[in-house]
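User: I've been going back and forth on whether these two constructs are worth ordering. Before I decide, could you fold them both?

Assistant: Sure. I'll take them in the order you sent them. The first construct and its structure tokens:
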Amino acid sequence: MCGIVGYIGKRQAYPILIKGLKRLEYRGYDSAGVALINEGCDLNVYKAKGKVSDLEEYVGDKDISGVVGIAHTRWATHGEPCQVNAHPHYSSSGNLALIHNGIIENYATLKAKLQAKGYLFKSSTDTEVLVQLIEYIQTNKNLELLEAVKIALRSVIGAYAIAVLDKRMPGQIIAARKSSPLVVGVGEGEFFLASDASPIVEFTDKVVYLDDEEVAVLNPAEELKVVNLHNVGVNPEVKTIDLELSQLEKGGYPHFMLKEIFEQPDCLNDCMRGRVNVEANHVVLSAVIDHKERLLAARRFIIVACGTSWHAGLIGKHVIENFCRIPVEVEYASEFRYRNPVIDERDVVIAVSQSGETADTLAAVEMAKKKGAFIYGICNAVGSSIPRNTHTGSYIHVGPEIGVASTKAFTGQVTVLTMLALCLAKEKQTIDEAAYLQLVEELSRVPDKMKQVLEMNGRIAELSRIFTYAHNFLYLGRGYNYPVALEGALKLKEISYIHAEGYPAAEMKHGPIALIDAEMPVVVIATQNGMYEKILSNIQEIKARKGKVIAIVTEGDQVISKLADDVIELPGTLECLEPLITTIPLQMLAYHIAVCKGKDVDQPRNLAKSVTVE
């Protein structure tokens, strides 16, 4: 949520800031703004509701000069999307400008105190309260900006990533974070600032990830200075990022989402590289090697996640319980963190998050750690908050995912959870050797089978045209494919705005069957596995009520293919690996329906890629 970009150095800041905002558009936003200090030390703030392109149009005839600046894309929390509520926000004197990602939970109390002292507010945001508070402390106590920021942040309850400019001190940017990502790019006589590395990679591969309650001073005439809120100096660790600029471009595809759907075979190869060794017939995860005793001693696993990652967790539960014979619970992180769960040192909590910054999942991790649980993180974004706050874990290594609706991250998460199950099952000796070898070999074949499914893209695009009329969809699956039905329904509603529900097929009789008529498309995952006969019965129940069935079947199916209205045939695989194959046509179906409806596929309304607030 929200995007932060900053620059200070010798170059003109505005082009860097605007390019950076465009790199962060995938995070989701409803307004954009920029603040620049020019040679005359004027602080110019420009804001616009809508896209970054609207901001560019707005500043067309304005002064955009200056070698220092900050910029922001806002996803509305406090106050409607509009120019006044957009960031950056001025202080009352006009000396300070601030951008902010996160939520100040005690903003109302702080605002009332400031209003009592005569401060006036123009916006409805919690962010304006923070910039006014900083100025009040700076003025009242006659402090430098850095000290005022630290004191103000000690008064704040909530999450924040901020950047602050003071036109009286044009040679620095003050930045700070707590529970919201912020990364500093280190160049030659220049610094960059961003919510993630994507706006920085074009200019430098050297970065510093700020930790909670750390404040950075970006001054190109000095080394990067980092202190915590209690003025204790921090030695910033400069890391080299491995991110290619080409990964952030569409590469000839009309949308990032379609590109990322097609990247999945290569992404899974990257995910398994060095971990799945077919010749030696084994799967290796360094986290399991390093923490084998702790993982094997677990009385249960608790998977915490949100959205698509939660669906991956449901598949992980099935795989781990089946092969490892360890009980697994799957929790929405947003509920888990507030319900006082029973956790102790015998538990292993697996936190799954694409961004590694999901606020509810991060809070669940912190709570579980305090209760003594061992934390295993599964993330995509290297250096993000969850990997830095867990005991161990595994990256999914699928590359940056720009489309808001997750695709390759989902299959990457399922793959890592499957590898984790195989590693643990082998160590626990709860899996037959022949079955283990068969699984390892078949897992290595999945990327090639994905490629076969992707060849159906044109046909699925044609099929999608039929369903743009629909107002509702039902997705049904059994066993390993029930979470795939949930994920397919989520993809459709995220990007096409068609209401869709995913259900266990047998549960259809307990309510959803009342909805079925000739106008209700029903997607049924009906592959040739142990649940085939049960799914066949469910399809017959749908057809008896004139429902329109789109069946996902195994190649060569001769029974369901004759019952269904439309059929998508997939290459066969082992039942526990089917979600990696069956999810692909559902991603393509959602994508093409949304395109046919003229929707903004990569940036669907109201959604954000990285949900860094509650």
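The second construct, handled the same way:
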Amino acid sequence: MASPQEPDFDVIAIGAGFAGLGLIHSLRDAGLSIRVFDRASDIGGTWTWNRYPGAATDSEGYYYCLTFSKEILDEWSWSERYPGWEETHRYLHFVADKCDLWPHIQLNSEVVSADFQEDSGLWVVTTADGATCTCRYFISAMGMISEPNVPDLKGVDTFKGPCFHSSRWPQEGLDYAGKRVGIIGCGATTVQMLPVMAETAANVTVFQRTPNFVMPAVQKPMTPEWEKEIKDNYEEIIAKCRNHVFGMAFDSPVGRNLADTPPDEVQAILEEHWPRGSFRFVFETFDDLLSNAESNKVVSEFIAGKIRERVNDPELADLLTPKDYPLFAKRPPLDHGYFEAYNRDNVQLVDIKDREPIVAITEKGIRTDADEYEFDIIVLATGFQAYTGAPEAVAIRGRGDVTLKEKWATESASIMGVCVADFPNMFLITGPQAPFANLPTSIEQNILWITDCIKKMESEGYGVCAPLREAEEAWVAETAEIHAQTLMAQGDRVNSWMMGANIENKNPRVLIYFGGANVYYDKLRESVAQGFPELAFERAAN
């Protein structure tokens, strides 16, 4: 490697959401210069783009947050259990203001390419306006579900009204009161959106491919007493997240398996936990729901029964009830009145999997092979190109002039979701084959690993860290082996985004490490303690 040039920044990252803000705080404190680019006009990532009615966190807000500052934890007050997008967006502004992060952020700047320079060991980053800058370390902080999956529907450009993906909701807002609205898709977005839109829209029609196991959220306001309890115990709450299988502040029922519990006791435990809301229903009941098919079936049938209780029309309830896949083969959403919305006269469900496949979008609406539906607005709530979509959308080139998209064409390989062989000095936050867990917890653990790696390089005079192919192959194999032992392996049967099976013309692949977020976080710390054995370090030339 030739003598290193002086880069414009030590670090360049893409994405000014939770990950980007956390990176600025951590790397700036390590004495590094950093510039974070974002194509949006404001910080917030997901919480800038996702402005659809009802958009809210699915993790409880008091641990869906950055934890590096006790002062921020003490000063910020959440108004309710699951904050809406507006409140989460205000929180991120509060963090940026409090920590003086703004000087390191460049908004309205879309990065279109990043190229590793073999001769200098630097990355050259190019934005849409043609400007370039260089850095030693390049980081994707773009998020695991930020790149929309837009279906290839015939005639989509002919529709006369607004037609857009739900994650690209018009930033100026949208007046849907008294309008006819069609929603394609019935995942977490529609579960949140439908109850709110149905209140004022003339009618809302949901086009469903696969029904979901939807569990109760049980929204509630933050009381002074509850807030005091949280803030008095924040260290314990953070520790719970760090040591939980899904990164959440839950008490795990260690050793309590449904398979070993008498049936009457099983039902009593499920009934006790159901009204508490959140993902606690699955993570604080039994330990074997993801590994034992019969245990999973019992809980799946319990949830199905709850769905049928809440939908007045038995035929409609049947359409809304999952039947051919286990709980968690698709990511289950939390409910804020989704099923009750179908009891309204102005809400309709269309089964596009077995009864009325969509044929085309027309000037007036949506045509199935059985009917044509007229709308004023069409919302594509069709999910995301999870984990890989955002990095693949940028032309990122590593060694051998290979792009990340080309590398991941058949298998989304990585080392712990934080680095990729053939892409030196490049890091990912919650990349493919990292856990699917409470994201701020995973983000902060990834940032710790990345910061420790860069600090090692800076203090020991290394110019390049090259992820080892054998380490990548080992992580891919471990991830696949664990995945095969769980019921999550059936996700490709139901086009789950957790398997990448929702993307047309792309084969399903293992995108998630299911060995437990807590185990994964331990592996990150073990890597640091062992001097990053997954990487080959090369010294900078004098």
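Notes on the second construct follow. The domain at 9-147+385-539 is CATH 3.50.50.60 (FAD/NAD(P)-binding domain). The longest helix spans residues 439-460.
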